Amino acid sequence: MGLASRALCGAAGAAWRESFPLGGRDVARWFPGHMAKGLKKMQSSLKLVDCIIEVHDARISFSGRNPLFQETLGLKPHMLVLNKMDLADLKEQQKIIQHLEGEGLKNVVFTNCVRDENIKQIIPMVRGLVESSYRYHRGESLEYCAMVIGIPNVGKSSLINALRRQHLRKGKATRVGGEPGITRAVMSRIQVCERPLMFLLDTPGVLAPRIESVEMGLKLALCGTVLDHLVGEETLADYLLYTLNRHQLFGYVQHYGLDGACDDIASVLKQVAVRLGKTQKVKVLTGTGDVNVIQPNYPAAARDFLRTFRSGLLGPVMLDRDVLQRPPLADP
């Protein structure tokens, strides 16, 4: 057995932190307060659409979905697209679907918009939802229009572009970014299919006005729904390390060539910084004068750790595994 394998076997049997220190963190300041304007614009456009497509991150299938979507836009047929399935550990996919069904969500699709996985299921499902709705009074209209909604950076624009690739063989209609806030306004209708004729409305990401808990806020931030510096890159990197170790996901050890798994974020970031050459010279005042000391660049190492996780290089993860152990919330 190689040294790396021995280190991982030892890590699997180690005791990791049972909880993450959450005290003293003001989750409210992490999330911008201007999003109510976006929700009002979406409401005003509601009369133009037949169906709501809610997009969310498959790694947090239950956490952070905006309850105002259901309250405000709930009069229309509604489907949930759990995107980024390639980054999520879906061993318990059936349990996730059953849990969501217990909450009243019966139309759920897992997708990977980068590789167009399961994208072909979307159009038939939208058409079926609209035509089976008791509010389906379309007269002579032969076209369909759906509104794409969701919190920031879950892949709403990517879904629209994927549908256009699949059904129209056309390129990007909407800008896509790896940070929240790329889509800032409700856009005009975008055609995604010819037969049936279907249009989608892209919308800005809208978070819930109140995040239930600090841990939910950390999960959302880990998936890139807010800018890292608002939470703190090193805090977020520590929560990531805590999560990976607790789920016995030690891909970071091999990826960075570390000596072994570790629960101390300062030690891990120091090793990452040294391995990647992310160090900086710092002047230290001593009794004999100034001395240049090489120090690890902890923020830069934290940013690389987070970027590597989000790209899937540390392996798939289900951040909401704990939610599966609880009974589903009743459909309101």
Describe the structure.
With 332 residues, the protein is an alpha/beta fold. 36% of the residues lie in helices and 14% in strands. The protein contains 12 helices and 8 strands. A hairpin with a 4-residue loop joins strand 5 and strand 6 (198-201). The chain is elongated and about 85 Å long. The model is unreliable at 1-10 (pLDDT under 50).
**What is the count of helical runs?**
12
Topology as H/E string? HHEHEHEHEHEEHHHHHEEH
Whole-number average pLDDT?
85
Largest sheet: 6 strands, mixed
Outline the low-pLDDT stretches. 1-10
Q: Tell the overall outline.
A: elongated
Number of beta strands: 8
In spatial order, strands of the major sheet run 3-2-1-4-6-5
Helix content: 25-40%
- Nearest-angstrom radius of gyration? 22 Å
Q: In percent, how much strand structure appears in the residues? A: 5-15%
Helix and strand content put the structural class at: alpha/beta
Cα end-to-end separation:
54 Å
Sequence-ordered SSE layout with sheet pairings:
Layout: H1 3-12, H2 35-44, E1 51-57, H3 67-73, E2 78-83, H4 93-102, E3 108-110, H5 122-131, E4 144-149, H6 156-168, E5 190-193, E6 198-201, H7 214-222, H8 228-231, H9 233-246, H10 251-256, H11 265-276, E7 279-286, E8 289-296, H12 298-310
Notable characteristics:
12 helices; disordered N terminus; single chain; 6-stranded mixed beta sheet; alpha/beta; elongated
Describe the structure in brief.
This protein is of the alpha/beta class and 332 residues long. Helix content is 36%, strand content 14%.
